Amino acid sequence: MTNLTLDQVHSSLNFQIKHMMVSKAKGEFETFDVEFSGDLNDLPSAQVTVTIPVTSINTGNEQRDGHLRSGDFFEANQYPNLVFRSTSIKKVSGDEFEVTGDFTIKGMTHQETFTVEYNGTSKSPMDGSTIAGFDVSGKIDREAYGLTYNAALETGGVLLGKDVKFEGNFEFVVGE
After folding, report:
1. Closest by alpha carbon to 167, among 28, 6, 5, 24?
2. CA angle 164-169-171, nearest 5°?
3. 3-state DSSP call for residue 4?
4. Taking the CB of residue 137, how many other CB atoms lie within 10 A of it?
5. SUPFAM superfamilies given for it (predicted)?
6. Does the CA dihedral 156-159-164-169 come out positive or negative?
7. Exposed, middle or buried: residue 45 (CB in 10 Å: 0-12, 13-18, 19+)?
8. CB 15 within 8 A of CB 164
9. pLDDT tens-digit series, residues 98-133
């Protein structure tokens, strides 16, 4: 059994969505927790839980962040966290895996699959600790979770796309 402790300083969780049909709006969750239970040498047997506080959303625009926390989107007061719990991890090839699990947003749970690249381990030159790294990517249909706010554009189309792409880079300190 491997004990992993998330190194928040060296980790990130970003998202993007199509904006006005021609560009992308981007943001990040500044706070999140990843719990890992399992063995780094046998990742398909591991369990992963990711908890993301909605209040940590940051798009670089306070007004937009407030709107995202409101009832039009995440309803942060009633549903403070996004939670992903793995149900299976499948090795695709080499160091690439597919992690499938239950993703809960606004009290609605759907099965989602994310691509994970295990980057291996390394020794920290600072304190000699062992560090493990993972890159995660995937997308969800926001409308499946009741995130349906939108506006029609005068030129046709809508303000926001329905797909939200996620990209996470996670670094962990490996313990005994």
Report:
1. 28
2. 150
3. strand
4. 14
5. YceI-like
6. positive
7. exposed
8. yes
9. 999 999 999 999 999 999 999 999 999 989 999 999
> DSSP secondary-structure letter at 73?
T
Question: In angstroms, rounded to a whole number, what is the distance separating the alpha carbons of residues 60 and 40?
Answer: 35
What six digits make up the tokens of 129? Answer: 């600790």
Q: Residue type for 151, please?
A: A
pTM (predicted TM-score): 0.94
Both tokens assigned to 35: 């719990």
Please provide residue 159's backbone torsions phi and psi, each rounded to the nearest 5 degrees: -60, -45
Taking only the tens place, the pLDDT of each residue in 12-31 is 999 999 998 899 999 999 99
Topology of domain 2-16+25-175 in CATH is: Lipocalin (2.40.128)
Quick one: pLDDT at residue 15? 97
